[in-house]
Protein backbone atom coordinates (compact mmCIF):
# COMPACT_ATOMS: atom_id res chain seq x y z
CA UNK A 1 0.00 0.00 0.00
CA UNK A 2 1.36 3.41 -0.94
CA UNK A 3 1.67 6.20 1.64
CA UNK A 4 -1.63 8.13 1.76
CA UNK A 5 0.26 11.37 2.32
CA UNK A 6 1.62 11.07 -1.22
CA UNK A 7 -1.79 10.57 -2.89
CA UNK A 8 -2.19 13.19 -5.65
CA UNK A 9 -5.83 13.84 -4.71
CA UNK A 10 -4.75 14.62 -1.13
CA UNK A 11 -1.99 16.99 -2.29
CA UNK A 12 -4.53 18.70 -4.54
CA UNK A 13 -6.99 19.20 -1.64
CA UNK A 14 -4.24 20.57 0.62
CA UNK A 15 -3.11 23.00 -2.03
CA UNK A 16 -6.53 24.22 -3.16
CA UNK A 17 -7.79 24.80 0.38
CA UNK A 18 -4.59 26.71 1.21
CA UNK A 19 -5.18 28.86 -1.87
CA UNK A 20 -8.79 29.48 -0.93
CA UNK A 21 -7.65 30.53 2.55
CA UNK A 22 -4.98 32.79 1.05
CA UNK A 23 -7.71 34.51 -1.00
CA UNK A 24 -9.63 35.30 2.19
CA UNK A 25 -12.58 33.19 1.14
CA UNK A 26 -12.53 30.87 4.17
CA UNK A 27 -12.42 32.55 7.54
CA UNK A 28 -12.30 30.12 10.46
CA UNK A 29 -14.13 26.97 9.23
CA UNK A 30 -16.03 28.90 6.55
CA UNK A 31 -16.37 26.94 3.34
CA UNK A 32 -16.06 23.29 2.38
CA UNK A 33 -14.79 21.28 -0.58
CA UNK A 34 -15.59 17.79 -1.86
CA UNK A 35 -14.04 15.85 -4.71
CA UNK A 36 -15.47 12.70 -6.22
CA UNK A 37 -12.77 10.02 -6.50
CA UNK A 38 -12.58 6.99 -8.74
CA UNK A 39 -11.98 3.71 -6.92
CA UNK A 40 -8.75 3.27 -8.92
CA UNK A 41 -7.46 6.56 -7.50
CA UNK A 42 -8.10 5.51 -3.89
CA UNK A 43 -7.19 1.79 -4.01
CA UNK A 44 -3.39 2.17 -4.10
CA UNK A 45 -3.47 4.26 -0.89
CA UNK A 46 -6.23 2.85 1.31
CA UNK A 47 -7.53 -0.60 2.26
CA UNK A 48 -11.05 -0.37 0.90
CA UNK A 49 -12.23 -3.12 3.30
CA UNK A 50 -11.06 -1.24 6.38
CA UNK A 51 -13.99 0.99 7.37
CA UNK A 52 -12.93 3.06 10.40
CA UNK A 53 -16.42 4.29 11.29
CA UNK A 54 -19.81 4.76 9.70
CA UNK A 55 -21.47 8.17 9.90
CA UNK A 56 -25.13 8.83 9.00
CA UNK A 57 -25.57 11.33 6.18
CA UNK A 58 -29.11 12.34 7.21
CA UNK A 59 -30.53 12.02 3.70
CA UNK A 60 -30.81 9.57 0.83
CA UNK A 61 -27.81 9.61 -1.48
CA UNK A 62 -28.49 6.19 -3.04
CA UNK A 63 -27.47 7.25 -6.57
CA UNK A 64 -23.99 7.76 -5.10
CA UNK A 65 -23.81 4.40 -3.26
CA UNK A 66 -20.31 2.98 -3.52
CA UNK A 67 -18.79 6.29 -4.68
CA UNK A 68 -15.75 7.76 -2.94
CA UNK A 69 -15.18 11.37 -1.87
CA UNK A 70 -12.52 13.37 -0.12
CA UNK A 71 -14.35 16.01 1.95
CA UNK A 72 -13.38 18.79 4.36
CA UNK A 73 -14.39 18.24 8.00
CA UNK A 74 -17.06 20.22 9.79
CA UNK A 75 -15.76 22.99 12.04
CA UNK A 76 -12.25 22.60 10.67
CA UNK A 77 -10.19 25.69 9.97
CA UNK A 78 -9.03 26.01 6.36
CA UNK A 79 -5.73 27.46 7.55
CA UNK A 80 -4.92 24.15 9.29
CA UNK A 81 -5.71 21.71 6.46
CA UNK A 82 -2.34 21.82 4.71
CA UNK A 83 -0.29 20.90 7.79
CA UNK A 84 -2.72 18.40 9.33
CA UNK A 85 -4.86 16.88 6.57
CA UNK A 86 -5.67 13.70 8.51
CA UNK A 87 -7.57 15.67 11.18
CA UNK A 88 -9.20 18.18 8.85
CA UNK A 89 -10.14 16.01 5.86
CA UNK A 90 -11.76 12.63 5.38
CA UNK A 91 -12.14 10.02 2.66
CA UNK A 92 -15.62 8.51 2.68
CA UNK A 93 -17.55 5.96 0.65
CA UNK A 94 -21.33 6.23 0.46
CA UNK A 95 -22.85 3.03 1.87
CA UNK A 96 -25.15 0.72 -0.06
CA UNK A 97 -28.20 2.17 1.75
CA UNK A 98 -27.27 5.68 0.57
CA UNK A 99 -27.78 6.97 4.11
CA UNK A 100 -24.41 6.27 5.70
CA UNK A 101 -20.90 7.33 4.90
CA UNK A 102 -18.11 4.82 5.51
CA UNK A 103 -15.00 6.56 6.76
CA UNK A 104 -11.82 5.13 5.22
CA UNK A 105 -9.32 7.77 6.29
CA UNK A 106 -9.18 11.06 8.20
CA UNK A 107 -11.31 12.99 10.72
CA UNK A 108 -8.69 11.63 13.11
CA UNK A 109 -10.01 13.50 16.16
CA UNK A 110 -13.43 11.82 15.90
CA UNK A 111 -14.78 14.56 13.63
CA UNK A 112 -17.07 14.23 10.66
CA UNK A 113 -17.66 15.64 7.21
CA UNK A 114 -18.90 19.17 6.55
CA UNK A 115 -22.37 20.13 7.72
CA UNK A 116 -23.00 21.08 4.09
CA UNK A 117 -22.76 17.45 2.91
CA UNK A 118 -26.40 17.56 1.70
CA UNK A 119 -25.64 20.49 -0.66
CA UNK A 120 -22.43 18.80 -1.80
CA UNK A 121 -23.82 15.33 -2.50
CA UNK A 122 -27.09 16.58 -3.98
CA UNK A 123 -25.04 18.90 -6.23
CA UNK A 124 -22.74 16.03 -7.24
CA UNK A 125 -25.83 14.03 -8.24
CA UNK A 126 -27.29 16.94 -10.24
CA UNK A 127 -24.04 17.73 -12.05
CA UNK A 128 -23.15 14.08 -12.81
CA UNK A 129 -26.51 13.77 -14.56
CA UNK A 130 -25.43 16.65 -16.83
CA UNK A 131 -21.72 15.91 -17.12
CA UNK A 132 -20.22 12.48 -16.32
CA UNK A 133 -16.80 14.17 -16.01
CA UNK A 134 -18.00 16.37 -13.13
CA UNK A 135 -15.87 15.94 -9.97
CA UNK A 136 -15.68 19.03 -7.71
CA UNK A 137 -18.04 20.96 -5.43
CA UNK A 138 -16.51 24.03 -3.75
CA UNK A 139 -18.19 26.34 -1.25
CA UNK A 140 -16.70 29.47 0.33
CA UNK A 141 -17.44 32.97 1.61
CA UNK A 142 -15.73 35.46 -0.72
CA UNK A 143 -16.05 38.95 0.76
CA UNK A 144 -17.15 41.05 -2.23
CA UNK A 145 -19.60 38.45 -3.55
CA UNK A 146 -21.12 38.33 -0.10
CA UNK A 147 -21.17 42.15 0.11
CA UNK A 148 -22.86 42.36 -3.27
CA UNK A 149 -25.78 40.25 -2.03
CA UNK A 150 -26.45 42.97 0.59
CA UNK A 151 -26.91 45.77 -1.93
CA UNK A 152 -27.89 44.20 -5.26
CA UNK A 153 -31.24 42.69 -6.29
CA UNK A 154 -31.06 38.90 -6.05
CA UNK A 155 -32.74 37.93 -9.31
CA UNK A 156 -30.41 35.85 -11.46
CA UNK A 157 -30.75 37.89 -14.61
CA UNK A 158 -29.78 41.22 -13.10
CA UNK A 159 -27.15 39.71 -10.77
CA UNK A 160 -25.44 37.96 -13.69
CA UNK A 161 -25.81 40.98 -15.95
CA UNK A 162 -24.19 43.29 -13.39
CA UNK A 163 -21.23 40.93 -13.08
CA UNK A 164 -20.88 40.58 -16.87
CA UNK A 165 -20.75 44.40 -17.15
CA UNK A 166 -17.86 44.75 -14.70
CA UNK A 167 -15.07 43.29 -16.83
CA UNK A 168 -14.64 41.42 -20.12
CA UNK A 169 -13.71 38.08 -18.63
CA UNK A 170 -16.96 37.54 -16.72
CA UNK A 171 -19.18 36.52 -19.64
CA UNK A 172 -16.27 34.53 -21.08
CA UNK A 173 -15.76 32.51 -17.87
CA UNK A 174 -19.39 32.07 -16.86
CA UNK A 175 -21.55 32.51 -19.98
CA UNK A 176 -24.10 30.21 -18.31
CA UNK A 177 -24.63 32.85 -15.60
CA UNK A 178 -24.94 32.73 -11.84
CA UNK A 179 -27.82 31.15 -9.94
CA UNK A 180 -28.93 32.93 -6.78
CA UNK A 181 -30.72 31.59 -3.71
CA UNK A 182 -32.29 33.87 -1.12
CA UNK A 183 -30.98 33.66 2.43
CA UNK A 184 -31.78 30.23 3.87
CA UNK A 185 -30.67 28.29 6.93
CA UNK A 186 -27.42 26.59 5.95
CA UNK A 187 -26.39 22.98 6.60
CA UNK A 188 -29.89 21.64 5.90
CA UNK A 189 -31.35 19.21 3.39
CA UNK A 190 -33.61 22.07 2.20
CA UNK A 191 -30.75 24.32 1.14
CA UNK A 192 -29.06 21.23 -0.33
CA UNK A 193 -32.08 20.48 -2.51
CA UNK A 194 -32.47 24.14 -3.55
CA UNK A 195 -28.77 24.34 -4.47
CA UNK A 196 -28.85 21.12 -6.48
CA UNK A 197 -31.94 22.33 -8.33
CA UNK A 198 -30.07 25.49 -9.39
CA UNK A 199 -27.07 23.38 -10.35
CA UNK A 200 -29.14 21.78 -13.11
CA UNK A 201 -28.81 25.14 -14.86
CA UNK A 202 -25.73 26.86 -13.43
CA UNK A 203 -22.16 25.97 -12.38
CA UNK A 204 -22.26 28.81 -9.85
CA UNK A 205 -24.85 29.36 -7.15
CA UNK A 206 -24.72 32.34 -4.80
CA UNK A 207 -26.21 31.93 -1.35
CA UNK A 208 -27.39 35.42 -0.43
CA UNK A 209 -25.78 36.80 2.75
CA UNK A 210 -23.65 33.67 3.02
CA UNK A 211 -21.36 32.72 0.13
CA UNK A 212 -21.10 30.85 -3.13
CA UNK A 213 -20.92 27.34 -4.63
CA UNK A 214 -18.91 26.50 -7.70
CA UNK A 215 -18.52 23.18 -9.49
CA UNK A 216 -16.31 21.72 -12.16
CA UNK A 217 -14.45 18.81 -13.65
CA UNK A 218 -11.29 20.05 -11.98
CA UNK A 219 -10.29 22.09 -8.94
CA UNK A 220 -9.03 24.78 -11.31
CA UNK A 221 -12.42 25.05 -13.01
CA UNK A 222 -14.38 25.42 -9.76
CA UNK A 223 -11.77 27.77 -8.26
CA UNK A 224 -11.55 29.85 -11.44
CA UNK A 225 -15.32 30.28 -11.63
CA UNK A 226 -15.51 31.54 -8.05
CA UNK A 227 -12.41 33.69 -8.48
CA UNK A 228 -13.92 35.43 -11.50
CA UNK A 229 -17.29 36.08 -9.83
CA UNK A 230 -15.39 37.52 -6.88
CA UNK A 231 -13.33 39.78 -9.17
CA UNK A 232 -16.52 41.08 -10.81
CA UNK A 233 -18.17 41.56 -7.42
CA UNK A 234 -15.10 43.42 -6.15
CA UNK A 235 -15.20 45.81 -9.12
CA UNK A 236 -18.93 46.28 -8.59
CA UNK A 237 -18.52 47.02 -4.87
CA UNK A 238 -15.60 49.40 -5.46
CA UNK A 239 -17.69 51.37 -7.95
CA UNK A 240 -21.14 51.07 -6.34
CA UNK A 241 -22.61 54.40 -5.32
CA UNK A 242 -20.39 56.34 -7.73
CA UNK A 243 -21.50 57.64 -11.13
CA UNK A 244 -20.87 54.87 -13.69
CA UNK A 245 -19.39 56.80 -16.60
CA UNK A 246 -18.49 53.67 -18.55
CA UNK A 247 -19.75 50.12 -18.81
CA UNK A 248 -19.71 47.15 -21.19
CA UNK A 249 -22.93 47.52 -23.17
CA UNK A 250 -25.09 44.58 -24.22
CA UNK A 251 -24.09 44.84 -27.91
CA UNK A 252 -20.47 44.66 -26.74
CA UNK A 253 -21.21 41.57 -24.65
CA UNK A 254 -22.59 40.04 -27.85
CA UNK A 255 -19.31 40.88 -29.60
CA UNK A 256 -17.41 39.13 -26.82
CA UNK A 257 -19.69 36.11 -27.12
CA UNK A 258 -18.98 35.95 -30.86
CA UNK A 259 -15.23 36.38 -30.44
CA UNK A 260 -15.05 33.56 -27.87
CA UNK A 261 -17.75 31.43 -29.48
CA UNK A 262 -19.79 31.36 -26.27
CA UNK A 263 -23.05 29.58 -25.60
CA UNK A 264 -24.46 32.15 -23.24
CA UNK A 265 -27.69 33.24 -21.57
CA UNK A 266 -29.00 35.48 -24.35
CA UNK A 267 -32.12 36.05 -22.25
CA UNK A 268 -29.93 37.85 -19.69
CA UNK A 269 -29.24 40.67 -22.18
CA UNK A 270 -31.67 43.43 -23.14
CA UNK A 271 -31.15 43.78 -26.87
P1 LIG B 1 -18.63 23.33 8.02
O1 LIG B 1 -17.55 23.72 9.01
O2 LIG B 1 -19.63 22.37 8.59
O3 LIG B 1 -18.01 22.85 6.71
O4 LIG B 1 -19.47 24.64 7.69
C1 LIG B 1 -18.87 25.77 7.17
C2 LIG B 1 -19.78 26.55 6.28
O5 LIG B 1 -19.31 27.27 5.44
C3 LIG B 1 -21.24 26.42 6.46
O6 LIG B 1 -21.90 26.93 5.34
ZN1 LIG C 1 -20.73 28.50 4.30
Mean pLDDT, nearest integer?
98
- Unreliable spans are none
Whole-number total of structural domains: 2
Q: What is the CATH architecture annotation of the largest domain?
A: 3-Layer(aba) Sandwich
- Order of H and E elements: HEHEEHHEEHEHHHEHEEHH
By CATH, the superfamily of the largest domain comes out as: Class II aldolase/adducin N-terminal domain
Structural write-up:
Helix 9 links the parallel strand 7 and strand 8. The chain folds into two domains: 114 residues, 3-Layer(aba) Sandwich (L-fuculose-1-phosphate Aldolase); 151 residues, Class II aldolase/adducin N-terminal domain (L-fuculose-1-phosphate Aldolase), CATH 3.40.225.10. The protein has eleven helices and nine strands. The model has no long low-confidence stretch (mean pLDDT 98). The longest helix is centred in the last third of the chain and has 21 residues. A nine-stranded mixed beta sheet has the order 2-5-4-3-1-6-9-8-7, with helices on both faces. The protein has 271 residues and is α+β, with helices and mostly antiparallel strands. The site of 1,3-dihydroxyacetonephosphate has 13 residues, from loops. 1,3-dihydroxyacetonephosphate binds next to loops.
